[in-house]
Design a protein that fits this description.
The structure holds two protein chains of two kinds. Chain A is α/β, with parallel strands linked by helices. Chain A is built from seven helices and nine strands; from the N terminus they run βββααββαβαβαβαβα. In chain A, the strands form two sheets. A seven-stranded mixed beta sheet of chain A has the order 1-3-2-6-9-7-8, sandwiched between helices. A two-stranded antiparallel ribbon of chain A has the order 4-5. In chain A, helix 2 crosses helix 3 and helix 4 packs across helix 5. The model of chain A has no long low-confidence stretch (mean pLDDT 92). Chain B is mostly helical. Chain B has a domain of 45 residues. The chains are: A alpha/beta, B mainly alpha. At the A-B interface, strand 5, helix 3, helix 6 and helix 7 of A face helix 4, helix 5 and helix 6 of B. Chain B: One of its GO terms (cellular component) is mitochondrial large ribosomal subunit. Chain B: Its main location: mitochondrion. Chain B: InterPro entries: Ribosomal_mL51. Chain B: Pfam families: MRP-L51 (PF10244).
């Protein structure tokens, strides 16, 4: 009797899923010499300590990290809730979906008002119109009807928590990197690709900056690249974070995200829709 | 073809004479199956997972949360105007379409719409278990 201790084929993972070079750089230790560039603005709860990450530059390919940043644990170190990620991802796919599949019912198909032959006497089966669903060319009885929408909204706090969980998961798997700003020396796409390769960031990179205006160089460099994409901070969403392997945030983006996402933890519930004016908000 | 073989297999005895008839007798098909003929296995279709639409999918979905609630994600949907940010069953969709777009429709479309609304109203409210 042989004991088969190997996993069955449907549970075996390929060995090249995780790139070992990416995990070579450990997170910053307590006593590192680099300066702490940014501290958390919001008040931290007493039992949580901030997450520390390196701050890199895009200026030169082989530069050392500029310093350290502190990130709020309630945004970048929440418990990884896969069910919330799944819910937000399916919501993003489906709320915009309009299915235009449409068929005609027997009343809408052209023709078919007259009884084709007498009820009795002809020997053929009895029929009332040539467009009934039994006939070739007739209407469809229970087919898709007209443009149909699959719109629904998840509660706001679920969507906010989905963003927080996605950011924390990227942080935990060391796919999240902080950069001081998106200034590049040359508008060359090759430079960006070599920089990403040398730092082992991954195959696809999502660059996020706060402002709508980006520096010319990075705009030109990312224009022709398919897997390196540039979005403003307002456009951040769970689907893009899951699609791209690495997510690069600037320091301003981190501040903006923390401010927007932490507000929902301690807000009162809305008494009336946000379309109407509030005196103390935005 | 295969039905013939199956019937013979079910009713066959253990004699050799029945064994000859286990395979289908005909070598050409006479029916409506096997109509699609191919010379080779078709090539799998090449899907570009990183084109513009796919790489930018879902962007600005959180424009409310991250953008001071000046816009709502339902404003981003491209749809016929009576379906933007609305979900309903067929009767509700048709009533909304008639309310919003009814005067602009062609006479034939309007007539079919009204017939369908009348039919669905009677079906939902007068027949079946849930009236």
């Amino acid at each position: 009797v042989t004991l088969d201790t190997a996993l069955p084929p449907n549970l075996r993972l390929p060995s090249n899923l995780v790139d070992p070079d990416r995990l070579k750089r450990p997170p910053p230790s307590e006593d590192s010499s680099l300066p702490l560039i940014r501290k958390c603005d919001a008040a931290l709860p007493a039992h949580l300590s901030p997450v520390r990450t390196w701050v890199d530059t895009l200026e030169s390919k082989d530069s050392e990290p500029l310093g350290l940043t502190e990130l709020h644990p309630d945004v970048f170190a929440v418990t990884p809730r896969l069910d919330i990620l799944h819910a937000v991802e399916t919501w993003q796919r489906n709320y915009k979906r309009i299915s235009h599949a449409s068929t005609k019912v027997r009343s809408e198909v052209r023709g078919g008002g007259r009884k084709p032959w007498n009820q009795k006497g002809s020997g053929r089966a009895r029929h009332g119109s040539i467009r009934s669903p039994l006939w070739r060319g007739g209407g469809v009885s229970h087919g898709p009807r007209g443009p149909k929408s699959y719109y629904y909204m998840l509660p706001m706090k679920v969507r906010v928590q989905g963003l927080k969980v996605a950011l924390s998961s990227k942080m935990a798997q060391q796919y999240l990197h902080v950069v001081d700003s998106l200034n590049i020396p040359t508008p060359d796409s090759q430079y960006l690709l070599e920089l990403i390769r040398s730092r082992h960031w991954g195959e696809s990179v999502l660059l996020v900056d706060v402002s709508e205006e980006f520096p010319e160089n990075i705009l030109q460099a990312t224009e022709n690249l398919k897997t390196v994409n540039l979005i403003p901070a307002i456009g951040l969403n769970v689907h893009s974070m899951l699609k791209h392997e690495a997510v690069i945030l600037t320091l301003d983006t981190v501040r903006f995200l923390e401010e927007k996402l932490l507000w929902h933890d301690e807000r009162y519930t809305f008494l009336y829709p946000l379309k109407l004016p509030y005196s103390d908000f935005p | 073809m295969f039905a013939l073989g199956g019937l013979l297999r079910v009713g066959s005895t253990f004699f050799h004479s029945a064994g000859n008839l286990l395979l289908p007798v005909r070598t050409i098909s006479t029916g409506s199956c096997c109509q699609i003929r191919m010379h080779a296995i078709p090539q799998p279709k090449q899907v570009d997972r990183w084109n513009e639409k796919r790489s930018m999918f879902g962007i600005y979905d959180n424009i409310g949360i991250l953008g001071d609630f000046k816009a709502h994600p339902k404003d981003l949907i491209t749809a016929p105007c009576w379906l933007k940010g609305f979900r309903g069953n067929e009767l509700q969709r048709l009533i909304r379409k008639k309310k919003m777009v009814g005067d602009r429709m062609t006479t034939l479309d309007r007539h079919n719409l009204e017939k369908r609304i009348r039919f669905l109203y009677r079906r939902f409210n007068r027949t079946g278990k849930h009236r």
